Amino acid sequence: MEKKTDNEMAQIQRGLEDFLEKELQMYTLKKEEQPKKKPDVYQFYEEDWDREEPNRARPRETDRSGTQTQGRRRTDARQGSTSGRQSPAGKNGRKQSAGKNAGKRTSEKKNAGKQKRRKRGLGLKKILLAVILITALLGFGLYRLVGVVYNKLNYERLEAVAKQPMQEDGVINILLIGNDSRMNGEDGRSDAMILLSISRRTKTIYMTSLLRDMYVDIPGKEGNRLNAAYSYGGAQLLMETVEQNLDIPVNRYMLVNFEAFANLVDAVGGVDLELTTEEIEYVNGYLVEYNMLTGRPQGTDNMDTSVSGLVHLNGPQALAYCRNRYLGTDFGRTERQRKVLTEIVKKAPKAVLTNGGELIDGLMPNLTTNLTQAECFRLSLMAGKLLSYDIVSDSIPQPGTYTDATIRKMQVLQVDFEANRAYLKEKLYGE
Predict the structure, then answer these.
(1) Residue 214, Cα to own-chain centre: how many angstroms?
(2) What is residue 299's three-state secondary structure?
(3) β-strand partners of 384
(4) Residue 372 contacts residue 273 (beta carbons within 8 Å)
(5) Contact 380, 356 (CB under 8 A)
(6) What confidence tens digit (pLDDT) does each residue in 326-344 have?
(7) By C-alpha distance, which of 73, 78, 88 is closest to 16?
(8) What is the sign of the dihedral through the CA atoms of 62, 68, 71 and 73?
(9) Contact 199, 400 (CB under 8 A)
(10) What mean pLDDT value characterizes the chain?
(11) What gap in Å lies between CA 238 and CA 175, rounded to an integer?
């Protein structure tokens, strides 16, 4: 009987060992490889007991032979049968604890990350606010500066074009008019007419000379030379004439007289140009009239006729050079005007910084315009961008689009306006 009992105990022990070994193998399998199995009721009971009442004595249990054993002894037996390996229940407990700690650390990291992002966001907002404030102050300062300069020029409101925008279809057209009056406010002929076009579409500044001998239709008047439009109705009629004949919107102008042009050249420090000996002789000839009109002694600013090539011209000399129409007819004269203006535009940004006072005092009192202060401010804001634009000089009519003619005893240029309209639209608007 005792022997039989010993055999039964050995079988029970072997069965427990096999069972626990299978349990351990199942626990170590990868999660996706684990087969479905029935829950271990004993294990759940044991975990719940330890978690809820850890100090309570376990109830006695009865094994298959009828012997009562403590639940802890059963656990010890199970631990012993696995050669010192911890039960799955113990490992689960530790994993749960580690998971909680890991979760806590992850939460702390997330909170720290949020705080850093919040601080970074506040820092960026402060920087952005400072930039906006500085920009606003600079803009206000620039507007005040433009106002000071603007008050020195002569503003003329033209009701017919006052409500028209300065910029149309990405292009700003300003008609530059140089009249031959010697004193500000005195009417005279339009000695020079240059269409200044700032094209955002082609990133270019065009200076297009309009030859004064073109025979054009003048609104409300009989056909005549282009410069006659200014004599009939001033800047407004001249702009209407240009717009009607060339189909280009022009509703802003700047008018300068002889004195303003000479002062402008002096304010930028003069210009350096290539001149022939014959051109220098004509400069001295035109200086005779200028010196007489301005009350300067004759011979003032006369140039050395024995030199040629690259020479430096001051204001009165540059003006005399631009007025010469005997070399190259009116085409040569307008080309010389554009050469001087191109040099002025190149040197103007530096002159504003180094000689702004003389530039303002010499030019503004002799300049008349219908540009408003707000429009001048807009142009000043564009100055930085305009420095990157190409500067192109041109003239209308284009070669091959006109013929010399005599109309009503006037020597004029009869122009193919259709061809010149198409040319201008291509250059200014990219059409």
Answers:
(1) 40
(2) coil
(3) none
(4) no
(5) no
(6) 887 788 888 899 899 889 9
(7) 78
(8) negative
(9) no
(10) 77
(11) 9
Report pLDDT digits (tens) over 118-161. 666 666 666 766 666 666 656 556 666 778 888 888 999 998 88
- Please, are residues 345 and 391 in contact by the beta-carbon 8 Å criterion? yes
Residues 291-325 have pLDDT tens digits of 988 889 999 999 999 888 999 999 999 999 998 88
* pLDDT at 26 exceeding the cut of 70: no
pLDDT of residue 313: 96
Report the candidate in 52, 63, 71 with the shortest Cα–Cα distance to residue 15: 63
β-pairing, 215-216 vs 410-415, is: unpaired
Q: What is the largest CA-CA distance in the chain?
A: 155
Q: What span, in angstroms and rounded, lies between the C-alpha atoms of 192 and 212? A: 7
407 Rama class: left (phi>0) / alpha (psi -120 to 50) / beta: beta
Instruction: Tell whether omega for the bond before 88 is within 30 degrees of 0, i.e. cis.
Output: no
User: Tokens 């008349």 map to which residue?
Assistant: 368
Q: Phi and psi of 359, rounded to 5°? A: -60, -45
pTM: 0.65
Q: Give the type of residue at 320.
A: A
Q: Which residue has the tokens 């376990």?
A: 58
Residue with tokens 């005893």: 409
Closest CA to 198 of 207, 190, 189: 207
Give the C-alpha separation, 203 to 345, whole Å: 16
So what's the pLDDT on residue 331? 84
Encoding tokens for residue 44?
């759940």
Instruction: Compute CA distances 246 → 75, 110, 358, whole Å.
Output: 106, 69, 37
| Structural tokens at position 147 | 């106002």
Question: In CATH, which superfamily holds the domain spanning 154-429?
Answer: LCP protein (3.40.630.190)
Tokens 């010993």 map to which residue? 6
DSSP code at position 214: B
Domain with CATH 3.40.630.190 in the chain: 154-429
